Amino acid sequence: MELKIDDLVMCTVKSIEGTTVFVNIEEDGQGSISMSEVAAGRIRNLREHVSVNKKIVCKVLNITNDDVQLSLRRVTAKEKEEILERYQKEKTALSQLKTVSKDPDKIISKIKEKDRLWSFFDKAREDQSILDKVMSKEEAQSLAKILSEKKETEKKAKRVIILRSTSSSGVEEIKKALDIKGVEISYLGSSQFAIISKAKDFKEANSKVSSAIEEIEKKAKEKKLFFEAKEK
């Protein structure tokens, strides 16, 4: 699969030379990060932010021939968590693949021709018939059994908000503002509430929480309630 601008990729720092960080991109060759794209603000020493062999999540900024220019500072905390989760899932799946095949590298090459490894294994958990397209029937049956036995647990996303009112009817107004479907809401004390959602992957769970917070904020403005979403 070819890289595209704005793709998020897992990288391993290969070397630091002058004002440039050189990395190996998982599955996709090599790339570089200029000093200005390592972190925001003035950087005195690159090694305070990255070190050789460190795993980092980067965003593709530009691709010119074989030169892949990347950014570390433009990756959000949410994006980083999502890619690290994918990376761990992929490592687990590859380990499982090696237990059922004598030539896992050949199978990996077939997968990479049409898909990302993490994406392929995500699909295989839902539709195990796609395994037959890249491996023998015996291997597919063995891996399908492992995948079904190790179904992923639900992922949970959580944010904390502050919601309060000085109105005599403030308690009722706050209850109405928090009347949101699809998420769990619990009181933490000191006008703080936890907004929690669970889903099969973090991205979906986080999306539900974000939507709920947007709805609560809208209701809070209408009722002139104090609202604040705390940083993740």
Put the structure in a nutshell.
By secondary structure, the chain is of the alpha+beta class.
Report what the structure shows.
It is a single chain. The chain has 232 residues and is α+β, with helices and mostly antiparallel strands. The chain has 3 domains: 8-75, Nucleic acid-binding proteins (OB fold (Dihydrolipoamide Acetyltransferase, E2P), Beta Barrel), CATH 2.40.50; 78-149; 155-229, 2-Layer Sandwich (Alpha-Beta Plaits), CATH 3.30.70.1130. It is 37% helix and 28% strand. It is built from 6 helices and 9 strands. The protein has helices at 77-100, 104-112, 117-126, 137-149, 170-177, 202-222, and strands at residues 8-17, 20-25, 30-34, 55-64, 67-71, 155-164, 184-189, 192-199, 226-229. The strands form 2 sheets. Strands 3-2-1-4-5 form a 5-stranded antiparallel β-sheet. A hairpin with a 2-residue loop joins strand 7 and strand 8 (192-199). Helix 1 (77-100) packs across helix 4 (137-149). The radius of gyration is 23 Å and the shape is flat. It starts with 7 loop residues before the first strand and ends with a strand.
Give the topology, please:
Layout: E1 8-17, E2 20-25, E3 30-34, E4 55-64, E5 67-71, H1 77-100, H2 104-112, H3 117-126, H4 137-149, E6 155-164, H5 170-177, E7 184-189, E8 192-199, H6 202-222, E9 226-229
Antiparallel strand pairs: 1-2, 1-4, 2-3, 4-5, 6-8, 6-9, 7-8
Q: Roughly what fraction of the amino acids lie in strands?
A: 25-35%
Order of SSEs: EEEEEHHHHEHEEHE
Give the oligomeric state.
single chain
Give me the Rg, rounded.
23 Å
The rough form would be described as flat
* Overall number of structural domains: 3
Largest sheet: spatial strand order: 3-2-1-4-5
Kindly report the name of the CATH homologous superfamily of the largest domain: EIF_2_alpha
